[in-house]
């Protein structure tokens, strides 16, 4: 096989090599059916067992919290930005948002199209390079829910703890750090994630929600945009993204094999520490973008002294087989996305490269 790239793409992103190889081995003839999983009915026994396995594995990794259900939807996390207020924001209520960066802002703007909103906290004044303190979150008078973004993929911030909202439903966009560490599902009414960062290929959106939140949705909504449609049909109302669900199931097995969420967290911490130690120990050659306490273990954002030097860094890195280190076009700089599937070896190779680049350009 050709050498695999050192893949630091932000999304779609690296998938575990073991999963890709397993998928390849059973691609043409899935479970002795004489066809691939993409070619069979989603109402048949084989696909249904994969669908159910993926749901059960996901809940098991979260400790099988009582009363929660898993949905596999389409339209990306971006469609959830709209479905959440459409389904949960009632008359006389306010949709509450914690503003932490580009993704939170996109979610908030969709809610504004639907009804009344309230900004419960914001770090915009700091250019989103830090996170608001949990104690600074202030809800509106009649909140329908509080929405947070656990990891801001572009800025590179990540909440280490989550707010306690009591009886107000807490909803979280976990697109870029779901299953990267243990978390208490029972703190949340709903979490959701586009699969293409930590769970599998693009085309599937995972929703984990309290069943009572998603069983009775407003009847005036189009059928596909009602959570209740998908809940009562077990995400099989229409044709599901079957290959993506299969891949998620394989990624979940891979997480189990690595010691579940604790094992994955330890590995992720080790990877992130390698990079942040290199940045912090570089005497200002590399400059971390985010406050130390709010740094993401998934998206490591940093800068060099000038944009020219950053361009030279990207060019040299590409020549050495590194992919995806350019920061998001909206903020510039550099970013290494080190999701679950990015191997420790890739991070070690990047640290070596950064050391070498500093010696030759410092
Ligand atoms: C990538 C990303 C999204 C957008 O996901 P799509 O599936 O492309 O709609 C939303 N939120 C966060 C935090 C992301 O990282």
From TrEMBL:
Its main location: cytoplasm. L-glutamate binds at residue 43. GO terms for biological process: L-serine biosynthetic process. Its EC number is 2.6.1.52. It is an enzyme of class 2 (transferase). InterPro entries: Aminotrans_V_dom, Pser_aminoTfrase, PyrdxlP-dep_Trfase, PyrdxlP-dep_Trfase_major, PyrdxlP-dep_Trfase_small. Pathway: Amino-acid biosynthesis; L-serine biosynthesis; L-serine from 3-phospho-D-glycerate: step 2/3. It catalyses: 4-(phosphooxy)-L-threonine + 2-oxoglutarate = (R)-3-hydroxy-2-oxo-4-phosphooxybutanoate + L-glutamate; O-phospho-L-serine + 2-oxoglutarate = 3-phosphooxypyruvate + L-glutamate. It is found in: Cytoplasm. Residues 6-346 form the Aminotransferase class V domain. GO terms for cellular component: cytoplasm. Its cofactor is pyridoxal 5'-phosphate. Pyridoxal 5'-phosphate binds at residues 77-78, 103, 153, 173, 196, 238-239. CDD domains: PSAT_like (cd00611). GO terms for molecular function: O-phospho-L-serine:2-oxoglutarate aminotransferase activity; pyridoxal phosphate binding. Coiled coil: none annotated. Binds 1 pyridoxal phosphate per subunit. Pfam families: Aminotran_5 (PF00266). The modification N6-(pyridoxal phosphate)lysine is found at residue 197. Keywords: Amino-acid biosynthesis, Aminotransferase, Cytoplasm, Pyridoxal phosphate, Serine biosynthesis, Transferase. Catalyzes the reversible conversion of 3-phosphohydroxypyruvate to phosphoserine and of 3-hydroxy-2-oxo-4-phosphonooxybutanoate to phosphohydroxythreonine. Homodimer. Belongs to the class-V pyridoxal-phosphate-dependent aminotransferase family. SerC subfamily. PANTHER family: PHOSPHOSERINE AMINOTRANSFERASE (PTHR43247:SF1). This is Phosphoserine aminotransferase.
């Amino acid at each position: 096989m050709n050498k695999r790239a050192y893949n630091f793409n932000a999304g779609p992103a690296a998938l575990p090599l073991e999963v890709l190889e397993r998928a390849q081995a059973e691609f043409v003839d899935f479970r002795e059916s004489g066809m691939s999983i993409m070619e069979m009915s989603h109402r048949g026994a084989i696909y249904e067992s994969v669908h159910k396995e993926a749901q059960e594995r996901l809940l098991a990794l979260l400790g099988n919290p009582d009363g929660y259900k898993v949905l596999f939807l389409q339209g990306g996390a971006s469609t959830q930005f709209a479905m959440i207020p459409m389904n949960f924001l009632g008359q006389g209520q306010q949709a509450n948002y914690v503003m932490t960066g580009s993704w939170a802002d996109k979610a908030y703007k969709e809610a504004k199209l639907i009804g009344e909103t309230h900004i419960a906290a914001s770090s915009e004044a700091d250019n989103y390079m830090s996170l608001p303190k949990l104690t600074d979150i202030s809800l509106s008078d009649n909140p329908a829910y509080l929405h947070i973004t656990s990891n801001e993929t572009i800025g590179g911030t990540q909440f280490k703890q989550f707010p306690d909202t009591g009886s107000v439903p807490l909803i979280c966009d976990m697109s870029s750090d779901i299953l990267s560490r243990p978390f208490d599902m029972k703190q949340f009414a709903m979490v959701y994630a586009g699969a293409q960062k930590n769970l599998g290929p693009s085309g599937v959106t995972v929703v984990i929600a309290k069943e009572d939140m998603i069983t009775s949705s407003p009847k005036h909504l189009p059928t596909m945009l009602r959570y209740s449609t998908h809940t009562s049909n077990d995400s099989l109302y229409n044709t599901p993204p079957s290959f993506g669900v299969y891949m998620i199931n394989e990624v979940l097995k891979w997480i189990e094999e690595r010691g579940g969420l604790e094992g994955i967290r330890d590995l992720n911490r080790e990877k992130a520490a390698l990079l942040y130690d290199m940045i912090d120990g570089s005497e200002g050659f590399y400059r971390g973008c985010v406050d130390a306490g709010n740094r993401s273990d998934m998206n490591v954002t940093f800068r060099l002294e000038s944009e020219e030097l950053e361009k030279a860094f990207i060019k040299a890195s590409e020549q050495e087989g590194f992919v995806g280190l350019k920061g998001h076009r909206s903020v510039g700089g550099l970013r290494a996305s080190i999701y679950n599937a990015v191997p420790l070896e890739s991070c070690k190779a990047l640290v070596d490269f950064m050391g070498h680049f500093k010696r030759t350009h410092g």
